[in-house]
Structure formats: C-alpha cells, structure tokens
Amino acid sequence: MSIFELIYKVKDIMTNGFIKINKNETIKSALNKMIGFYRDEVIIVDDDGKMIGIFTMKDAAEIKNKKISLEDSVMKYAVKNVLTIDCDSSARFARDMMIEKHIGRLPVIENGEIKGIITNNNFRDTFYLKMDELFKLQNDIFDNLHEGVCMCNERGIVKYWNKASERVYGVKVKDILNRYIGDFFPNAMLLQVLKTEKRIDNVFHEPVRGKFVVLSAFPIYNSKKELIAVVSTDRDMTDAVNLTKQLEDERKKVEFLESAYKSELSSKYNFSSIIGKNKKIIDAISIAQKVAPTSTSVLITGKSGTGKEVFAKAIHRASKRIGNFVAINCSAIPVNLFESELFGYVEGAFTGAIRKGKIGKFELANKGTLFLDEIGDMPMEMQAKLLRVLQDGVISRLGSEKPIVTDTRIISATNKNLTELIAENKFREDLFYRLAVVQIKLPPLKDRKEDVKDLANLFFRQVSKEEGIEINNIDERIYKNLINYKWDGNIRELKNVIQRMVVLSNNGRITIESIPEYIRSENVKDYNYNDENEYDLEKIIENAERKTIESVMKMVNGNKNRAAKILNIKRSTLYYKLNKFKL
C-alpha cells in the first residue's frame, strides 16, 4: 500500500455541494438546477431520500437530439444502476474504479445516505494540492528516520538528502543537493548500483575514513523499465565499531598481561610445560614447586586426562634428581607380572623369563623418580611388597635374594577415591599414608574454562610440528565452542580433538567446521554453560539473549530487519549483538 492510499480517503477529496432532486421532477427542472448551480449532474432520490439514479448534462444533450419533451419525468431518462463508494475507501481505489468502469462520477454513500460525489474534476483540482501534502509528509517521515536516506538520479546527482544523513556524515543538504555524489564519497555504493543496476542489502561499508555504516541501496525504474534513480539507507555503526575496537584492544592488553603472568609463573615454578591460569592449577603448581626439591612421596589425584603424568614429570624436572623418570601404569600390568615389572628378575626365575634376566622399574628409576600411575588398581598382595620397599628402600629381583639399595622418589597418581577403597578393604591404609605425604588434586578441564584456549593453542603448535602440517589461520569462533564443551575426557580429549582438526585441516586453515559435530551441537553448549556456573545471573541472561537472537535469525532466514522487529530492538542494537555473540 502506498502512502497516498494510506493517507487520502474518498471523504478527503469528494464534493459536498451536489444537487438532489425528487424522482417526480421534470427534465426541465433538473436542467434549471444544474445550470443554476453550475453542476453537470443531479442526484435523483426517492421519497425517503435514498438515491435511485443520476441525470447528467450528457443525458440532457441526448434527449434534446431526440426531441423529447422537457416536461417528461427526469427519472425516465436517468442512469439507474449507479456505482457507489463509501467515505473511508482510499482515493486511489476510487480513481481506479472510475477508470476501469469508464464513469465520470461516483456517488459517496454512508449508511445508505448520499454524502458527496467524486468526479474527474475532483482528482484534477485536488491532485497537486494533495501531492504537495504528500511530499511534505514523506519529507517529515524521512527526516525523522534514524537511517540516513540519499537519492541520486541516473547520473549520480544527489536529489534527496535527509537530516539523518546530515548527522551521520556532517554534510549539509544545501552543500550536497544537486551535486555529484562521488565528489563527496568516491567509493559510494550508490555508484556501484547505478553501474550494475543490482540492489545491495545490509553491507558493512566505510564511505569515508573512520565512518562505518550498514548500507542498503536499490535502483528505481520508470514505467518503461528505465533506471531513473538510486536510493540508499545508511545505518551509522561507527560507535559500535569503535566500541568493538576498544574491547578488542582491551582484550589484547588482558591477553598480554596474562601471557606475561604465565611466563613469570613458569619461570618461577619451573613448570613451563603446564598451561594454566586457573586458581586450582596455580595452587597445585605452587605445592608441586615446594615439594619438588625434596624426596617426599607425592600423590596426584584427578580424573583421567587431567594431566597427572605431566605434573609428575614437572616435579621430577624441578627436583634436580639425576636419575630417570620412569612411569608404570598399574592398571595395565597383569597381576602375575607385577612383581617382575617393579623389581626385575634374574635368569631362570620363571618360565618364559629372558635369558639374562631383566632390570625392574625401581632400579631404572634409581636416583630419579618412579611414577606409579593408577595406583588404585594395584593388587593387594603387591601393595604389601611396595610398602616394604618404601619403608627400607631395598629391593630384590625375582629369583634372587641379593638386596639392591635404591634411591627412588615415588610419585603416584589415581583417578579413584582411595579413601573409599580403603573402607572397602581394596587399598592398604598404611600404604596410602606412605604415598600421600603430599597430595595434589588436579581439577577437571570443565572447571578450567579460562585455560582451554591456551591449552588448545599449545596443542595446535605441538601437533602442527609433530605432523609437519603448517597452520596459519585459526577461526576465533572455535575457541568458544571448545570452551563450552564438557570435556569428559579432560585435557587428553582436548588434545585428541586438536590433533583431528590439524590433520583434517585444509590449506593450513582451522575453521568452525573443523570441530567435530558433537562438540558444536546446541545441547552440549547449553549443558556446559549451566555446568560452568549455574548461578551466574549475568551469564545466564547473556546466554538466553544469544540463544533467542540465534533462534529468531534462523526463523527469518537471516533477515535482520525482520529479526529486529520481532525482537523489539533497534537494528543497530541487533548488529551490535550479532557481532558480540559472533553469530
């Protein structure tokens, strides 16, 4: 519907000064009244005042040619099946009806009573006046829009420039009107549309240095399909862009400070292989750093994949012990081989023994560190033998009674609750106290959200180097997905995912599509958001806002104008939030 149709009704342009005559009047009486009141028609009504016909000067001329008596009843020669229209119909509809039906007048009826009449003269006399009113109305509308509106003719000459455009660009209408748009904006998108005759929608553009807008432009054609103008609308995004840049600068400053802090931390504690800003990790590093130079036994607890062996190696490196770091997984050794693996054996000790015998892990770790991983899976009978070694520091190879003195530091680790195993008589309490002189508990990765990005980057570098695959571009959005995932497999799972992404990368690019689908799925993101901190009101509101915007954008197939209306927010606000949430 056009503005003309919306604003102007039949009642705005109809003539109230029509002539009514009774059905019983003569032709002569009708003519005299038309001549006397300078009208081309009379409305014929019945005794109740209801219109029943129209008699016009054209009808009178035809009667004269036929030599009919002027004393005859006017009703006999009147047009009886008269088309009518109501007061609230649009003026445009009335005009179209008159053209289509080839009629010169249209009575206006309300509740069965005639209120006026529309003739061709009405349109001729009121058209220019109404058009002036319409142009003023349109100017008022455009001047109160938040968006800048510019219209150029087919040669790029500015023919309209609203007040919002003055505010956005600081160019007054008196200075730019009837001037070539390219003189003010050399890279104006209007010029591109003039050249290609193709519309553009919601393009991020910088018309002049430092001024950012979201711009749409479209061509206008006349009835002959000839291009006659181009119109653009510009939404000022400069403040939002500048705010985004400021936030990015602040983010870089924070990252720099975090990097400096991490470097200082690594240098101070000598745990450069451990990535972490999380308080629990920092506390664990602090404890490990203090205990590292001693011979004290350390028990490291935490779920599988949390980095227990990495911590054990770091403690060993910081201990300055000259021997080897030797690791053994207690859950992977058959029960009947446990003793031989730990203490070694001599030739002929048992069937299948290596001819020259074999050195055990304790001897390999002499002057160094023996790491007993998954200590909770060690058989009870082996626990007693281990306890004896820890008490006196002497071992004997299987099949030999010769004592061997070792100086081996024990670091053990488990993902099980040893206190519960003790209560169930599955782990020796005295061994527990021997192993857990110092305990270090490592948090799961889901409680270390702030460390995920740094760990991911570390693994990107490591895997890239190991696989000989150069990675030169990483989509920032992948970090949000990685941070929001639950990571049941902890750091080990993260490294496996990173390895998959690297080996399946294309042209050195890690994109959002590189992330496995199960990590990107919506339900996983929702789960982890609540899991991270279910009572953080600000984050809950932000998450709900992100989800709502994402849902509406999908519903309207990316139409930002429609989305803004549905969300009941300004389009500039929508653009800011889309950029904020990287949607």
Structure description:
The protein has 583 residues and is α/β, with parallel strands linked by helices. The chain folds into four domains: 3-128, Roll (CBS-domain); 145-236, Beta-Lactamase (2-Layer Sandwich), CATH 3.30.450; 272-443, P-loop containing nucleotide triphosphate hydrolases (Rossmann fold); 447-580, Helicase, Ruva Protein, domain 3, CATH 1.10.8.60. It has a five-stranded antiparallel sheet with strand order 7-6-10-9-8. Strands 12-15-18-11-19 form a five-stranded parallel sheet. A hairpin with a 6-residue loop joins strand 16 and strand 17 (403-405). Helix 11 runs parallel beside helix 12, helix 23 crosses helix 24 (560-567) and helix 24 (560-567) crosses helix 25 (571-580). The protein starts with a helix and ends with a helix.
Average pLDDT for all residues:
83
| Structural class by helix and strand composition | alpha/beta
Structurally, the number of domains stands at 4
Mind telling me which CATH architecture of the largest domain this is? 3-Layer(aba) Sandwich
- Share of helical residues: 40-55%
The CATH class of the largest domain is Alpha Beta
For the largest beta-sheet, the strand count, sense and barrel status come to: 5 strands, antiparallel
* Beta-strand content bin: 15-25%
Task: Give the low-pLDDT segments.
Answer: 1-6, 261-269, 522-532
Side by side, the strands of the main sheet go: 7-6-10-9-8
CATH-assigned fold name of the largest domain: Rossmann fold
Number of helices: 25
Q: Write down the oligomeric state.
A: single chain
What is the rounded Rg? 45 Å
